[in-house]
Amino acid sequence: MKKNVLIIGAGGVARVVAHKCAQHNDTLGNIVIASRSVAKCDDIVASVLEKGSMKVPGSIKAYALDAMDVAATATLIRETGSEIVINVGSAFVNMYVLSACLETGAAYLDTAIHEDPAKICETPPWYANYEWKRREACKEKGVTAILGVGFDPGVVNAYAALAVNEYLDSVESIDIIDINAGSHGRYFATNFDPEINFREFTGQVWSWQNRQWVSNKMFEHSRTDDLPVVGQQTAYLTGHDEVHSLSQNLDVDNVRFWMGFGEHYINVFTVLKNLGLLSEQPVTTAEGLEVVPLKVVKAVLPDPSSLAPDYTGKTCIGDVVKGTKGGKEKEVFIYNIADHKEAYDEVGSQGISYTAGVPPVAAALLVASGEWDVKEMANVEQLDPRPFLNLLNQMGLPTRIKDEEGDRPLNFA
Amino acid sequence: MKKNVLIIGAGGVARVVAHKCAQHNDTLGNIVIASRSVAKCDDIVASVLEKGSMKVPGSIKAYALDAMDVAATATLIRETGSEIVINVGSAFVNMYVLSACLETGAAYLDTAIHEDPAKICETPPWYANYEWKRREACKEKGVTAILGVGFDPGVVNAYAALAVNEYLDSVESIDIIDINAGSHGRYFATNFDPEINFREFTGQVWSWQNRQWVSNKMFEHSRTDDLPVVGQQTAYLTGHDEVHSLSQNLDVDNVRFWMGFGEHYINVFTVLKNLGLLSEQPVTTAEGLEVVPLKVVKAVLPDPSSLAPDYTGKTCIGDVVKGTKGGKEKEVFIYNIADHKEAYDEVGSQGISYTAGVPPVAAALLVASGEWDVKEMANVEQLDPRPFLNLLNQMGLPTRIKDEEGDRPLNFA
């Protein structure tokens, strides 16, 4: 049994995490939110209190923290008695926060793979470059570290595990499809940190095909599906965290990730990329100022959290899993539909943040209860998906399944 | 009789000016090239010597100069005995260089309107905000200052004056059309300083219609013409220097400027503008760095002078002038065709730089000879166009005319 949660980060996802922790503070105990900007943490605390999200009277506090300062993070963990750390800060801080957890014994949860600011689209499997190097250390110290437990990666890994465990005898391919059919009404915006968002797409795109790593360029391959609720959508082969772990942890020939983009997004992205404005390498202006173009693009784009109030429409994210069952070919689509406006009404964030922020809180509840307190490092597909998906059904991210028997909710009661 | 030329600036246009001054150094005397970067000046000097552009043995020297330092510029003018200053530096330095000319008595020539770095698309007539405030000072001191004597503004002003003086009894409209039908083979590039280039288009677009200033947005109005050599081309109503002077100096109802753009240029421009990346106002990055987005865009785009070696195709720039002659409606198109590759072969710059750089040297020759040494401030349309266009016929920018009598060279011998 672990309790008391430290949330690292104060963006749109952290806001969802804070609200959802508050809604379960009878189990999770005290809540601490820490980021470089304490004002942003204060704002989230105020929102939690204002919306009456705290299930029972309890503590929720804001702290200023540079999460790259391992000693400062360890001290905050100890001083606040936090036994669970949910890291939803920048992907650049993962390894520092994990170090602080290894030092203090706190459970570590994150929602995205570690990134080095100077590198993009690293060699696969990416986890092996950073996180997995700490596997032994976690095991030795009995530290629970659950990697990538947002929606994608995270819930989609659980969907994959569920399909492999329960729906198919042999699996030929897992295709994860992420469609945001919502509209923010701006000329252009990214749904989370533009810097992290663009970095996913500017280099090579890795996929696992016929048990080999295949490299493509962004927008080189697409697929068009007629999906539940959101209808016909085109998605593009993209590199993504979960391809790097599912390929190693599940015995499957093909693992691919497909993200939906409209023509307008692709046009803006293409212009910026071709001009060199998405580069993470500094350029020097005529006046001698050294500046990273991508950081300037980030500075001119809307703050993703500012999109929430006007965001309408739905997301559809799920796994198309193909293989055989009882000697016959079978295909299942396990998925979730989320609604931007419903998310905003509940927790003040848009649907993308909602889908990313609810799962780590479900995971924290499973760590608190002991079901997922595995005392080692794990990707989500290595854990039992049933209690996780069961919690998500109750917490606002219901799972549905579509196969030859129809399209229906998936319950694990 | 004036002689010895100081060229300020060391970009693609300055290179053309240097070569053309060298080709006429029997009249113009010693040549000095000065800019912030003496290395760029040295490079131009080397190019002039290497191509054997000096007509007679003479002096050509490079100096480092901050042209915003009026005292330093005045000292350089005096120490080098320069009686003619050709300012083809940034449009931000015009008023400083003019001050140095007023102080020393040197003739002043430039090719673009003065700009305040903090302002774009100023209120019309733009010249009245800066240059024309020095009219009295020029007259008092007998300083010749010829404003905007590049191609456009410059040669097109002379075309307008010629049409008004010689081809029509009454003029209803002057439409200046600037088409670059060349290709540089890059994804995207501007033909001169991207900062100055984009600043022309990001704000409002002023035109003189029915004797009033009319404001539009860029790309709001277009016209498609079947033009000599370059064929059918679409051009867009744009603000431009010469509209601000022609409207005041000629007695004409309508003066408009139209610039040709391809769909790709418009798309890139539109994306950058809508994102805020063409803004001249600083933004602050997440790391706290204050930076002007437009300067970063400039830093990632190709250096315009680097385009020259691969540039192919032609430009067509001219004036469509409509009115009446002998009681009948008449329309003339007075224009020039320039070729990018021919320009590069002759002076090492592409055609856009060539069309901008040759005219101020023709003007300098007319100042040297006394024909245009008017001892006051003038826009080109206030001066006799015949000797100017006659010189340009000999210097590589021949004038042609197309009217009801056909399409033919225009000679003034």
From TrEMBL, chains A, B:
Gene3D superfamilies: Dihydrodipicolinate Reductase, domain 2, NAD(P)-binding Rossmann-like Domain. Residues 5-146 form the Saccharopine dehydrogenase NADP binding domain. It comes from the Bacteria. InterPro entries: NAD(P)-bd_dom_sf, Sacchrp_dh-like_C, Sacchrp_dh_NADP-bd. It holds the Pfam family Sacchrp_dh_NADP. Residues 150-397 form the Saccharopine dehydrogenase-like C-terminal domain. PANTHER family: CARBOXYNORSPERMIDINE SYNTHASE (PTHR43796:SF2). This is Saccharopine dehydrogenase family protein. It comes from Aestuariirhabdus litorea.
